[in-house]
Amino acid sequence: MIWDWNFTLQILPVLARAAVVSVEATLLGFVIAATLGLVLAVIRIAVPWTAWTISVLVELIRSTPLLIQIFFIYFVFPKFGLVLDAFTAGVLAIGIHYAAYCSEVYRAGFDNIHRGQWEASIALNLSSWTTFRDIIIPQAIPPIVPALGNYLVALFKETPLLSAIAVLELMQTAKIIGSETFRYTEPITLVGLFFLAMSLVSAALIRTLERLLNRRNAR
Amino acid sequence: MTEQPMVRFDNVSKRYGSLTVLDGLNLEIARGEKVSVIGPSGSGKTTVLRMLMTLETINDGVIWVDGEPLTHMQQSGKLVPANLAHIRRIRAKIGMVFQSFNLFPHMTAMANCIEAPMTVLGMKRADAEARAAELLDMVGLSQKKDHYPSQLSGGQQQRVAIARALAMRPKIMLFDEVTSALDPELVGEVLQVIRQIGREHDLTMLMVTHQMGFAKEFSDRVCFFYQGKICEQGPPSELFGAPKNERTRQFLHAVLEAG
Asked: How far B87 CA sits from the closest chain A CA (Å)?
């Protein structure tokens, strides 16, 4: 028999625990990505002389594989005295990687703000901090929620890369079950189904959020 | 001692690459004076306002506001380009109303009017709201304070923008073609508000306008700009009644011809 239901029920609790790790890594990674991405995009505009450095940095991160960055943080950083456990190193790598993508999304959001909004802010003598916080960011974010949401789902689907540094997330757990029992069909299929379900749920949530934001803006 | 002018352009030039927009501008505006700036498009008239609001940098010269340099600051007896802190201190005296209103679309009329008083002047919300309510009342919009810009007509939006600028208690108000984006039937209500604040507030006002009738009736002085220079200036009765310069005559003829 190709599919063993008893075996499936037996490994389900183990995989469920691992799924929690995957979701944690996703949420923490995305918080880093969304925050750091915003910070990079704001600094790039607010402090013009940093623009070149930031764009090189962003390009560098986007143009190298995430797996290499994960390895770099986990295996190379300790040589410079920064020792991180596998989960922290992995989440940090994912967060920074997607921060590079997110910063471009924010930048597009800022570029779409009419020049008159910046000029009115100057005419009212707002500080650049207040201008971003109260005027630019609240207008720039709603239209880019779908793009950020896409990166959330993409980030989630890349968490199996953390298995490469032995983080006990879904993929790593499935691999261990497979190598111990010589049954791969059930664990790998279950992992695939789990990612499918979670991605569909996230996509639906993002669409709802998008609708809510659109409704608020349609005032 | 003669009184300091409120605004003084001292040999100010503005260039974009090889294009000279303003060429050695000298212009003094007295405290409380209402000055209209007219001229064909591309004559540099809007640039004058934008430089004064520090939306544009200048290439040469110094702009003075209320006896202090705006674009520069004193450092061991010499004038050096101003830093942001200095610019922010001086430009607090200036307010501006734009052709395209530039209200913050995600904020109500009231929120538009209290944002800067609270964050820049550090006013308490209750005080800022009380002052904003007064101003919105003055521009005839006390009923609309909880409306968003998208729920207001162009004329109403522009009146909110005027209240928003006044909420910062400027000494100088700049009006940049503030009726040009309005439907003709809405122009009157905005001009009426400008007339009123001209009477009731001790403001120095500088406006770029295409409303010749309004410029004639409202201003103490009219400046005609042509190719980056003041071509002719004087009291409205003289400039409109008996223009001395050929360019002025041509321009006024063309404008009045068009109605």
From this structure: 9
